[in-house]
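At this stage, I wrote out one protein's amino acid sequence and its backbone structure tokens, and that material follows here:
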Amino acid sequence: MEKTRIKDLAFAELEKLIVSLGEKKFRARQIYQWLYVHNVRTFGEMKNLSKSMREKLHEFCELNLLTHENTKISPDGATKKFLLRLHDGYHIESVLMHSQHGRTLCVSTQVGCPVNCRFCATGLMGLHRNLTAGEIIEQVLLVENLAGENVTNIVVMGMGEPFLNYDNLMQALDILTDDDGKNMARRHIVVSTSGILPQIERFITENRRYRLAISLNAPTDRQRQQIMPLNRKWPLQKLLAAARKYTESNRNRITFEYVLLRGINDSVDDAQKLRTLLQGIDCKLNLIPFNTIYSIYQRPEKEAIMAFYSVFEGVRFPVTIRWSKGADIDAACGQLVTREGGKPVVQ
């Protein structure tokens, strides 16, 4: 009989499981805290449960959903990339970054990605499957266990398109922010999407308090369609209308991400168009110099990056150049791609 993967369960489902095992419902709360507050790796560590109950949990439930394969550490020690194996043999990557803002973990939501952004290594893999809620949560718990320190911020910007695995992602984040769970602050969690409009609208309607980022990457539909084919379905004006709705509905500033690609979207004219496009939106703009992958694209010269940035002098919203951490270990934005059998998935 296949064991129940206990971290895939919402709290109400956990209560039902515990009752089905012949135990009192209140035990679910104790287990929940052992899982997400104390981050135990075995049922034997749940000391306020009876021995017989721990044995039942061991017999019928699976506790750990990911296996650590290896860790790559950047030369400056500020970035660590963890290769994690799933129960069915697939792999994902999670990246821990240290900065003045704390310890930020970039988590994955899918094995591969179906969106096919031309400049992203993960997209070149195609989609193998969605991660379960427990597999998303487990990235945080396992990395904390491996690193010996707590994660203070989460960015859902790893492998996959988060809004194409919406239900599992939201269940995972709700557990991580539960007062009786890990109790992370919602304002310290950013969900990044390539622009899946129906899920953006659902996110707004459900009044999710997590921060939202949209990967924009071009100031016109023509340019965006060249590098992000999904723009044909959900063009810029519809995305920007949703962005305005988001900022107005929950008073949170939205983040726009803009990957700078040499000769594609990095001219001063592109910057001027982008400045006009974002006027009147309560936003933050992150400019991300392209990180080299298996790709036809290249990073602009530093002079071109700075010229693009200078166009935004005097705007009423913050603009930053995000020199991505971990590029030297293929852990930067757009570089996550797992290997099967020792070879890159993309040849």
Q: What stands out?
A: The longest helix spans residues 133-147. Residues 4-62 form a domain with the DNA polymerase; domain 1 fold (CATH 1.10.150.530). The longest strand covers residues 91-99. The mean pLDDT is 91.
